[in-house]
Automatic annotation (TrEMBL):
Site (Transition state stabilizer): R17
GO BP, sorted A to Z: amino acid biosynthetic process; aromatic amino acid family biosynthetic process; chorismate biosynthetic process; quinate catabolic process
UniProt keyword annotation of Lyase present: yes
Coiled coil (UniProt feature): none
PANTHER family given in the database record: CATABOLIC 3-DEHYDROQUINASE
Single GO molecular function: 3-dehydroquinate dehydratase activity
Enzyme Commission number(s) of this protein: 4.2.1.10
Protein name in the entry: 3-dehydroquinate dehydratase
Keywords, sorted A to Z: Amino-acid biosynthesis, Aromatic amino acid biosynthesis, Lyase
Taxonomic source organism: Paraoerskovia marina
Catalytic site: Y22 (proton acceptor), H102 (proton donor)
Gene that this sequence comes from: aroQ
Quaternary assembly: Homododecamer.
Pathway connected to this protein: Metabolic intermediate biosynthesis; chorismate biosynthesis; chorismate from D-erythrose 4-phosphate and phosphoenolpyruvate: step 3/7
Domain of life the protein comes from: Bacteria
Length: 150
């Protein structure tokens, strides 16, 4: 079972970027941790990051075409990208799972972070557990897809 773990803008700055909000784990540390957690759960995991909306939209199309489930931290795109939302909808409407994750708890932060335009088309959302949000998302995915081949 393939899983794409996709990260949006500024997440390559993890560890350096506002560590009081996002913690001290670096992006490389996140990649290693997510790949390890996914592998232990029996997933074939690929972890990617981009600051480019077109690229993350293309990756969601790729998920549909390769029958891959998705764990996605859309970062700031969460709050305003209808293009990302429409691409995410193709994943979940295509019978695949897409779990939205956030490192911080957006509801405890600025007003503009309280709205996700992605949430309504996601399978579910996990937020506020630091990089552990990715582990919880992968565990949820394991439970949802069972031990089947897809
Ligand atoms: C974030 C929360 C977003 O509001 C913010 O724009 C990010 C990261 C998180 O993981 O907590 O870049 O998605």
């Amino acid at each position: 079972t393939r899983v794409l773990v996709l990260n949006g803008p500024n997440l390559a700055r993890l560890g350096v970027r506002e560590p009081d909000v996002y913690g001290h784990t670096s992006y490389d540390g996140l990649v290693e941790a997510a790949a390890g957690w996914g592998g232990a759960l029996g997933f074939e995991v690929e972890v990617r990051q981009t600051d480019d909306e077109a690229e993350i939209v293309a990756w969601l199309h790729e998920a549909v075409d390769t029958r891959s489930h998705v764990v996605i931290n859309p970062a700031a795109f969460t709050h305003y990208s209808y293009a990302l939302r429409d691409a995410a909808a193709q994943v979940t409407h295509g019978g695949l799972r897409l779990i939205e994750v956030h490192i911080s708890n957006p509801y405890a932060r600025e007003e503009f972070r309280h709205r996700s335009v992605v949430g309504a088309v996601a399978t579910g959302t996990i937020a506020g557990f630091g990089v552990g949000s990715y582990r919880l998302a992968l565990e949820a995915l394991r439970e949802l897809v069972g031990d089947g081949a897809d």
